[in-house]
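Subject: Interface between my chains keeps coming out wrong

I've been trying for a while to get a sensible model of this assembly. When I model each chain on its own everything looks fine, but I need the whole thing in one frame so I can look at the contacts. Pasting all components below, labels as-is. Any help appreciated, I'm running out of ideas.
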Amino acid sequence: MAQAQRSLAPEDVELLARLAPAAPTAYHRLNPLTKATAAAGVTLAAIVLGGYVVPVALLIGVVLPSAAAAGVLRRVARLSLAASAPILVSVVLVSVFTRAGTTVLFEIGPFDATLEGVDFAARITLRLVVVAMALVLFGLTTDPRSLVADLERRGVAPRLTFAIAAALEAVPAMVERTRAVAAAQRARGLDTEGSVGARLRGIRPLAGPVVLSAFAEVEERSLALEARGFGRPGHREPLWTPTDSPGQRAARWFVVAGVAAALAAVLVAQAAGVLAGLP
Amino acid sequence: MRSPVVVRGLVAALAALATAVVGVIAAGAFDPVPAPNGVPPGSNLLMLVLAIALVVGFVAYAAVEWAQTRRLDSIARQFSTRTIVLMALAIPLNIVLGQTVASALKLPVYLDSIGTILVGVLAGPIAGAATGILSNIAWTFVLAGTPFGSPFAWPFAIVAAEIGFVAGLFGYAGVFRSRPNTPLPRLVAGIGLAVVLLGALAWWGVLPFYQDLCEPGRGPRQLCFELLSPTVAADPVFLTLAALAIGLVGLGLVAGVMRLVRNRDLGVIVTLAAGVICGIVSAFIAAPIAALVFGGVTGSGTDLLVALFQQAGSDLQQAVLQQSLISDPIDKAITYLLVFTLLGAVSRRQAARFPQGERALGTDGP
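Reply #2:
Try treating it as a single job with all components included. I did that and got this:
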């Protein structure tokens, strides 16, 4: 890569430099696979090990310091709480009031709030908050293009990485198109407030044009890609890839081994009857 | 020297088998005390264990391929450019339609597997499964920091893979073909067959899981068909409300189906039956995941059903399964019907360019 750069014109060098996404902090500059492994490891550990101690330890020891180091702590907190608010409200209401338990705290009508329900709701809430924060942290510090470029460098088929990258770019356009279709159909008299039957009949006028226009787009895109050599086999040299280091590689394997060991330990403990069964 | 593909296949099969054995033991299938509802213990987890075993086998295959060739090519090489582009557009369909249609129409349908089903039907089971997995993983990991992302979609990648795979199999079998102007005797026979098939499935495969809601000695197969029988702990009013809600959605579904059956299209009945079957299988795989990872809730309106079933005395796993066995078949049946009507409008020339398009949709059409 450096050798190629020596023979490039300065404008091309500048273009290549622009391909690298913005990386304001050292955490941003970590390899995307490292950040993904960290997020996945925290998520799996919080779920497999459960309880109170592990999620809190992960939150205070791993997620919050990483978010602070990357300078996105407030955004992570705000986005993860916004994303998990509906499910957290549900968990609390369903578990506190309807979960079977013996110690009743108070009653509202036919529903009684039990201590076991509060305990369960607290554990699930803690777990979901940790999971949401870890994943939002990953999303805010990793440019999807750099993740895709890294996967491609490691040998994932370029066709699959293209599918992921193209899917990401198509989402905002499809949201706009769906809004436009909904507005147009309402102008033509689509009933979105009426009876259940009327609303069920409304699914097709809303979803139909979006899906059919996606089909037309498949035609055009395939032809354009084939014309640009998408299907041809052989090696592809990426213009830019994220860097990696042996230390990060070791850290990744350590996390993978740790989570696998935790899962094995939990399964063995359940089989031996030491741990309670599945909730 | 064995061919590298054979080695990969053997390792994958062994890994899947080992996972299945471990999973079945962990699910308690060999528990000496039988469950009171007569269903073998741990059977509600069996589908999930099988699905996980298949995914582990697939991961083992990929790991061995990586070790052999330092690349992960063999899966993607089977997909044509058109299939890849369809996958790339089906993933946003899953994400966008799932959110916008449900909120615009305020209905408890999700439509978040419509893209997966489309790819499965047109491009085959493997492409459908790949779309399902990529869709859920991308929804979480690639879109995580954006307003469209969801940190809670990744555990259901297994369910999405199963939905895509099953849709591919149904497409291969020609389920989604339009069969207009079927002669009346054949139409009646088809409806009868579908009722018998789904009835048998409900009788032996679904109703036993509602046993614990009824008084001991009266199974669901005898008297608890409509959830209105007196139960041990819950107020019948709430159960009545739940039954009414289910009935309303069911009526709306039937009304929609009747309109299509006016064309005497047997394909509607076949698609509907296939959708219900897909929904039941998905319910068995998704319910334990929701119970284990999320405490049984998803943040949507169906959590009310979970609350009602828990209040009526079911434990968490049972309550989530009971809710899923109601809402998932309805949702998948609606999605399958929608896919059926939409594919009926796609030109046969366009559809035939996909690997399974001609087989799935036949050659008569626009």
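Reply #3:
Confirming on my end. Chain A has a mean pLDDT of 86.
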